[in-house]
Amino acid sequence: MECGVPGGLCRTGRSPGPLAGAQPLTVSSDRRTVLGGALAFSLAGPAAARAAGLDILLAGALRQGGTLIGRTDPGARIRIDGREAGIASPAGVFLVGLDRDSPAAVKVTATLTDGRTAEKRLTVAPGGFDIQRINGLPPQQVKPQGEALLAKIAAESERKARGWASRVDSDDFAGGFSPPLKTYRVSGRFGGQRILNGQPMTPHYGADLAAPKGTPILAPAPGRICFAETGLHFEGGLTMIDHGQGLVTAYLHQSRLGVRAGQRVERGEVIGAVGMEGRATGPHLCWRMKWRDRHLDPTLLIGVRAPA
């Protein structure tokens, strides 16, 4: 059994499935459409905002762990619940990440330098996360001990934190994501509470995609490699890609890395190979995503694009 739960949904390429994102329909601000098992939507702003020439359009999964790709006027300053969340790109594209533990009500605001403002109030659906029980892991993988090992883990954590903190000035995420594997079986869903060898752990912030060892891992969207190392205690071979505006994806347990830090990659480019290095009991890819310290489900961006 790999690092997840047995069974799961088989998916090949971009066929529909309950973990996939969906190209959303355009709906009015009081309607939402469930597509592919994820709550997908696109909301236009009020008539007053449109008349003033400023609007907010959003597309994506409106649920805990979802990511919304937005469009507004270029250079607009974005705030989420009053907190700074970046600046819209020259194409007017920006991101809204809904953390795994996002509150049910979220306010998105776009403001131009001349003071014009548009606002969206969103209702976020609960994630409905699983409980996952995994037994048979080596004790050191569940609760590491020993001064040397703890020092190694601490040093690795510092390096990984720098990777997650990467901030490339781009909007490479605007075209949405493709699956990082051509064929796989979902063996562990994002956000589940994990109980390892009977010990409750923090939530699992990745989607586990089971596939044979050596299966090529493909970049799901363009970006720049901001971390690439092997031999990590928990992750084994780990690669991170910065897709712009603080959106970073990670690829864990690789048997082989095919890229180096600082390298630019395009969608579909091979970045490594599936393995079972680190904390894993079978070959699989753990696919993770963070945006400004918010934990997101990467599968919910599959097929979602920036609103026109």
Describe the structure.
By secondary structure, this protein is mainly β. It has two domains: 91 residues, Immunoglobulin-like, CATH 2.60.40; 174 residues, Glucose Permease (Domain IIA). 9% of the residues lie in helices and 39% in strands. The protein contains three helices and 24 strands. Strands 1, 12, 15, 17, 18, 19, 21, 23 and 24 form a nine-stranded antiparallel beta sheet that branches. A hairpin with a 2-residue loop joins β6 and β7.
Helix-strand layout with pairing:
Elements lengths: L9 E3 L20 E3 L2 E6 L3 H5 L5 E5 L5 E5 L5 E4 L2 E5 L5 E5 L7 E7 L5 E7 L7 E4 L4 H4 L4 H18 L18 E6 L4 E4 L2 E5 L2 E5 L5 E3 L4 E10 L3 E7 L4 E8 L1 E2 L6 E2 L4 E4 L10 E8 L2 E3 L12
Parallel strand pairs: 11-13
Antiparallel strand pairs: 1-12, 2-3, 3-4, 4-5, 5-8, 6-7, 6-9, 9-10, 12-15, 13-14, 15-23, 16-22, 17-18, 17-21, 18-19, 19-23, 20-22, 23-24
Mean pLDDT: 84
How many β strands by DSSP?
24
Order of helices and strands: EEEHEEEEEEEEHHEEEEEEEEEEEEE
Structural class: mainly beta
Give the terminus-to-terminus CA distance: 43 Å
CATH superfamily of the largest domain: Glucose Permease (Domain IIA)
The percent of residues in helical segments reads under 10%
- The CATH class of the largest domain: Mainly Beta
